[in-house]
Amino acid sequence: MESESEPSPPPPPSFSDADDPPPSHSPELPEVIALSPLLPAFDAALSARFRLLKPSPLPLSSPISSAASAALVRAPTRVDAALLDLVPSLRLVVTTSAGLDHFDLPECARRGVAVASAGHVFSPDVADYAVALLLDVLRRISASGRYLRRGEWPLRGDYPLGSKLGGKRVGIVGLGSIGSLIAKRLEVFGCIISYNSRKAKPSVSYKFFPTVYDLATECDVLILSCAFTNETRHIVNKDVMHALGKDGVIINIARGGLIDEEELVKCLMQGEIKGAGLDVFENEPSVPNKLFTMDNVVLSPHLAAFTTESSSDLLELIIANFEAFFSNKPLITPVSM
């Protein structure tokens, strides 16, 4: 019998002519590999300062021949052993996100690959967005707008009243950069703030709860602003939702996997909690269809961090991190590993 031929390996990634620097560029420009698709503005700005290599196709499936030592990634591109094997020359990976759940940080540390993140660039805008989602859920702004646009106001009368924000007991899960800014904004509205974190923070006066369940029992609102890790996956489960209660609201501007999404849908449908404001989802970009029909749920497609201003600030930070690296200076936003 003839033996079956082994499948041929995938061809090595190619670099388009557009990746070559124009004649006016110095041949000594340091190389940066884009391991994720880039926005046009980022592409143009980075190409003006570095020799930007854009392998195709993405995601990578075979080794790169370049000796470039620095790369840029966007979530959800995974930076793990498999990727690092394909680009063994890397010594720095800069990510456009503040969250690091797409990184295998121990593996990066083992290989001597430094990581730089978006730091706190997005924090103010995400905090604003969390408050906006909460206001929308409580005051039913989006839902009443749909009511008006459907022409139901003259036919069915005034839209049902919403709830005030002032005086609400708000529990924040993760009192880091974003969580702290959310707390400060909600204090202005007269909210009573408490929090759960890995440990109590002596620098704040808010009441600390050692578990999310305990926090939920004492709150009207839960806002999720913690990192997504193996330990925090489904940190908001059925028990936590029931502890929050029928008048409770959940806001998530962190990562979708923090919530047991299937249980959330059930609790919303059965009236076990009052409402939710969700900017992130467990299997993005897929969103449970049942959420689309609920007027007590406000949805957005992972937009909390992104404004024209934050994008501009992020681009400046990315360039500053690369320039620091190539000048043998400390990174601006290094990740501890």
TrEMBL record:
GO molecular function, one term: glyoxylate reductase (NADPH) activity
Keyword NADP among UniProt keywords: yes
One cellular component (GO) term of this entry: cytosol
Keywords for this protein: NAD, NADP, Oxidoreductase
Database matches in Gene3D superfamilies: NAD(P)-binding Rossmann-like Domain
Region of interest called Disordered, as start-end residue ranges on this chain: 1-30
InterPro entries named in the record: D-isomer_2-hydroxyacid_DH (IPR050223), D-isomer_2_OHA_DH_cat_dom (IPR006139), D-isomer_DH_NAD-bd (IPR006140), NAD(P)-bd_dom_sf (IPR036291)
Domain D-isomer specific 2-hydroxyacid dehydrogenase catalytic: 68-335
Domain D-isomer specific 2-hydroxyacid dehydrogenase NAD-binding per the UniProt entry, residue ranges: 131-304
Family: Belongs to the D-isomer specific 2-hydroxyacid dehydrogenase family.
Stored PANTHER family: 2-HYDROXYACID DEHYDROGENASE-RELATED, D-ISOMER SPECIFIC 2-HYDROXYACID DEHYDROGENASE FAMILY PROTEIN-RELATED
Name by which UniProt lists this protein: Glyoxylate/hydroxypyruvate reductase HPR3-like
